[in-house]
Amino acid sequence: MEKAWWKEAVVYQIYPRSFQDSNGDGIGDLPGITSHLGYIRELGADVVWLCPIYQSPNDDNGYDISDYRSIMSEFGTMADFDELLKAAHNLGLKIVMDLVVNHTSDEHAWFAESRKSKDNTYSDYYIWRDGKDGKEPNNWGSYFSGSAWQYDEGRGQYYLHFFSPKQPDLNWDNPAVRGSVFDMMTWWLQKGIDGFRMDVISMISKQPGLLDGEVAPGALYGDGNVFTNNGPHVHEYLREMNRKVLSQFDIMTVGETPGVTVEEAKKYAGLHTGELNMVFQFEHVDHQGPYGKWNDDPLDLPKLKDILFRWQTGLDGVAWNSLFWDNHDQPRAVSRFGNDSKEWRERSAKMIATALHMLQGTPYVYQGEELGMTNVPFRTLEEYRDIETRNAYDELVHKRGLSHEQMMRFLHRISRDNARTPMQWDDGANAGFTSGTPWIGVNPNYTEINAKAQVGDPDSVFSYYQELIALRHSHEIIVYGSVEPWLEQDEHIFAYRRILRDETLLVLCNFSDQMLTVPLPDGCADTPAQLIGNYDDAAPTAALRPYEARVYLYK
Ligand code: TEU
Ligand code: CA
User: Fold this and answer.
1) Measured in angstroms, how far is the CA atom of residue 17 from the centroid of ligand 2?
2) Ligand 1: centre distance to CA 430 (Å)
3) CA distances to 281, 350, 530 from 301, in Å
């Protein structure tokens, strides 16, 4: 398989609002990020993905952009950004920006013009429709509850918004919109950034005619996959973007494509399709139940294995995977896929990291995941800040009659705010995140879980992530080896082999708190070289201890 730096890289994702405050206003900012670039370099990551830092009214914490070419006032200035970029490049770190162009803020100048009339330059920059029988143009729901349509008195029409009413969807069928977006992208790339993560890029082409979606009777908002994925022109628009912008630079691109299938990913992330380098698929973190995404179900490992192996074998040799357990929209990895109890948190955090980082694809480490940070036990709804969480509470409890207690259990397990509590730097006030009042509560366990306690401690989760990343940088088989599932039917063991020329890697991960026997595959001697493991003492042959991970290399 042909080599590429973005295939060999490990990406560190930063949610700037919660990473490091440098001026005491309780909100993370760019100088705060710059002050910790050395930490990211020490971890071993190669690329930093910054969630949106552009001017925004923060209805959806920066995913509602009002000016693509200026920095959010709360985060700092363009001079701060230029300094961050320079410092990163001096450390050998690349900077990937978050491109949010399925929608803008309703405070963007384009929307201000568009809503004024039906015949100005920007009138068709968004998706406007007359109502139908005095109601919304169709039955589409927003990911943030309620209808996906908002009536605008001024223009006397409805406009489409897959997210909040303050995030109107752009009309990508309008070549002027594509031209404006491509110009903006080129402007940032000429400043020297190293790529883009493209927000909900699978949604930019809408189903023609905007017809009612097939939603189950009584279904809730947010069945987004019904109508938001892969409209007829999405690949055409991405090939145009690649031709006119992306192909002019040596950069990395990753599309966020909720609802994407393996077959569609072969187009988006195909090695030679001329679109993107890779995509984020969401099958392993998606849950569509009676309450949409909201659930407190236990981990279903067989289902998780089936999904991950389907993606691994499906793209092997034809396209490229991204690898992630969590991000700013998902609960904390160790709480969801491991066991965040006192007894098993560290061990299971290292085990799930092994399971992910030994797969084929580019791994993403979300801020705090490398410390084994956990979900947050907020006791009241008021402690949550996320618009998706607050709207869902209103919809499910006040409009659909779900009990407060059940919804709080759902929030504890699934709310995006689990990932958005401040980064835990040390055991000082507010975990060293701010000298002021943090915009969102700090997880009370910061006194035990923080970077200061872990950096330099060879037994810490941080050091284990350092080892995993160093192995990826030193063993081609981890990047380019093919993937062969092992023990697919086992309920508790996640195991697979990677093969490259005359080498075989065997990865064994016990997702349970039981001692299990583990048959080794043919050709795998019983005294191989152990590459990494999360128990200090030698392993009992053909057995896996609770939450044990072991990786063997056979030459
Ligand atoms: O998220 C896309 C999206 O579908 C999210 O709603 C996410 O899948 C869901 O919350 C998981 O349950 C992107 C950004 O990552 C997210 O932060 C933004 O809120 C959203 O787009 C709108 O820009
Ligand atoms: Ca600040």
Assistant:
1) 8
2) 27
3) 18, 17, 25
Q: Is 256 a catalytic residue?
A: yes
Query: 369 C-alpha vs ligand 2 centroid, how far in Å?
Result: 22
Nearest atom (ligand 1) to Cα of 224: 4
Residue 100 in contact with ligand 1 by CB distance below 6 A? yes
What do you get for the CA distance between the two ends of the chain, in Å?
20
Quote the ipTM score.
0.96
Q: With CA atoms as reference, report the closest residue to 215 among 224, 204, 202, 203.
A: 224
Distance CA 533, CA 44 (A): 19
Asked if 71 and 81 touch (Cβ cutoff 8 Å), the reply is yes
Residue 486: CB within 6 Å of ligand 1?
Answer: no
Please give the structure tokens belonging to residue 200: 């909900």
Domains and CATH numbers, the chain: 481-553 (2.60.40.1180)
With the C-alpha atoms ordered 307, 330, 491, 551, is the resulting torsion angle positive or negative?
positive
Query: Measured between alpha carbons, how far is 411 from 406 in angstroms, rounded to an integer?
Result: 9
For the full predicted model, state whether its pTM sits above 0.95.
yes
Q: Is the distance from the beta carbon of residue 200 to the nearest atom of ligand 1 less than 6 Å?
A: yes
Encode the chain (555 residues) as per-residue pLDDT tens digits.
Answer: 799 999 999 999 999 999 999 999 999 999 999 999 999 999 999 999 999 999 999 999 999 999 999 999 999 999 999 999 999 999 999 999 999 999 999 999 999 999 999 999 999 999 999 999 999 998 888 889 889 999 999 999 999 999 999 999 999 999 999 999 999 999 999 999 999 999 999 999 998 888 887 766 555 544 444 566 778 999 999 999 999 999 999 999 999 998 899 999 999 999 999 999 999 999 999 887 888 889 989 999 999 999 999 999 999 999 999 999 999 999 999 999 999 999 999 999 999 999 999 999 999 999 999 999 999 999 999 999 999 999 999 999 998 899 999 999 999 999 999 999 999 999 999 999 999 999 999 999 999 999 999 999 999 999 999 999 999 999 999 999 999 999 999 999 999 999 999 999 999 999 999 999 998 887 776 667 899 999 998 777 789 999 999 999 998
